[in-house]
Design brief:
The chain is 37% helix and 21% strand. The longest helix is centred in the middle third of the chain and has 18 residues.
Length: 454
């Protein structure tokens, strides 16, 4: 069996957008290096200054270098029929595969990662970056961050593992182990320990810092999906994750809520900012010069106290049309109809005449106040009971004015307790206004008997 130890330098971290600037490949037959390949490559795109600072490869150096398509046949012949080896292999392999794909060739080779192999061969090291592990094993790197120097160091590292612990290499090559997708610092044992259950999970870097928070109905399955594909963000996350922890919720509803709470608390590096649109429309109340309570739907203004907020004008408009009919209000006074005279509903006998002095303010305002009381009552506190982490418990979620306020898990025995006692036992959470949107999306899925006004 022969292996090709590969290292590349690139213009950036995204295989589909970046370009290769240097390639080195060393063929290892189990005893010696039997063939070497090394060349600068014209990436046909701009090399950022910080990349030049890191690698020393400038735009001028690659201007007369061959393009990838010019060296593709030689590289293909070198790789064909051999095992592709690299330090953090998915990065190098993804770039080379994309480069071949661009010229109509599909690369499909077995892969080995020397980061993963080193974790098994030399457990307990603080870091498994190439520079650090070479320092620990007294392997000299002649030109750090240049393809040939890094490839030579990787080859020596791989040779040490192959000659002294070859079983690790052959075990990793066995098909069906399912390790190829795993990040280099996450072991197969860690992956197998992940629960196939609902909850939230945390990715940690080498220092234990949380760099990503997610939710999932199946944490194990979701973890695997994180690392399918080779986008720049996925490759960066793959290289930085060193550990994963989790918290089971049972309830998918609670998982959504805890995810946003943790993101707002920790602001992890790899979480895109969760964007919930603010309520653009609102219902306002005022009293006109004749003493009538009037209502108006308009753009939300944080400086003015609103009665109710809406996500869209159509939602607000339908709400007011329904309530105008339900409480026998005047559509002119609720802002539904715009007319200088009596409303159109009065002409067909549906309005009592507040719009044309046929009804007294006191009588009309009584119905308007009933409408306001209806809104106030709907803004109260509510306890929602949902699925727990096992068949022996339930999840309890408490909302005040539509915002998530507390949660906990209650046994089947506690389920029968007084609801006020259940609320008092719950864990209070930070006030995050955006949780009202999660409530709004989940409330239709909850059985009415499990929604309890408090």
């Amino acid at each position: 069996m022969e292996f090709v130890i590969v290292d590349i330098e690139t213009t950036g971290g995204n295989p589909s957008q970046g370009g290769i600037t240097e390639i080195a490949a060393l063929v290892f037959n189990g005893n010696n290096i039997i063939e070497r390949f090394h060349t600068l490559v014209n990436p046909e795109r701009y090399i950022p200054n910080f990349i030049t600072g890191l690698t020393g490869i400038s735009q001028e150096m690659v201007e007369d270098a061959p393009k990838f398509e010019e060296i593709a046949e030689d590289l293909w012949n070198l790789l064909e029929g051999r095992t592709f080896v690299a330090h953090n292999v998915n990065f190098d392999y993804a770039f080379i595969r994309e480069a071949f794909k661009a010229i109509g060739k599909e690369l499909n080779l077995p892969k080995l990662c020397t980061v993963r192999l080193s974790r098994k061969a030399f457990p307990g090291l603080g870091s498994y970056g190439l520079g650090r592990i070479c320092e620990q094993l007294a392997i000299e790197i002649s030109h750090r961050h240049r393809a040939f120097g890094d490839a030579e160091a990787t080859a020596i590292l791989f040779q040490k593992i192959y000659q002294h612990q070859s079983d690790i290499i052959f075990q990793s090559l066995k098909k069906g182990k399912g390790e190829q997708f795993l990040p280099p610092h996450i072991s197969q044992e860690k992956f197998q320990s992940l629960p196939e259950a609902t909850g939230i999970y945390f990715f940690h870097d080498r220092h234990g810092q949380v760099i990503y928070v997610g939710k999932a109905a199946n944490i194990k399955s979701r973890f695997k999906s994180h690392f399918s594909g080779n986008s720049e963000e996925k490759l960066a996350l793959k290289s930085e994750i060193h550990d994963i922890t989790w918290e089971l919720t049972g309830s998918e509803f609670l998982a959504y809520l805890l995810e946003i709470l943790e993101i707002k608390s920790l602001w992890p590096k790899f979480n895109r900012a969760q964007k919930y649109k603010s309520s653009q429309w609102a219902l306002f109340q005022y009293e006109d010069s004749r003493g009538f309570i009037r209502f108006q739907v308009s753009k939300n203004n944080p400086k003015i106290q609103s009665i109710m907020e809406f996500d869209s004008h159509s939602e607000a408009w339908k709400f007011m049309m329904d309530k105008t009919t339900e409480f026998e209000l005047c559509p002119k006074l609720t802002g539904i109809q715009k007319t200088p005279e009596a409303c159109y509903d009065h002409q067909i006998g549906k309005c009592h005449g507040a719009c044309c002095e046929k009804e007294k303010p006191a009588l009309y305002n009584q119905r308007a106040k009933e409408f306001l009381a209806c809104i106030t009552n709907n803004k109260g506190a509510v306890l929602i009971k949902d699925k727990g982490r096992s068949t022996h418990e339930n999840c309890a979620l408490y909302f005040e004015n539509g915002v998530f306020s507390a949660y906990g898990f209650i046994s089947q025995e506690e389920y029968q307790n007084n609801n006020e006692e259940i609320v008092a036992s719950l864990r209070i959470v930070k006030h995050i206004p955006e949780t009202k949107y999660i409530l709004r999306s989940f409330i239709p899925k909850i059985h009415q008997r499990n929604i309890i006004p408090i």
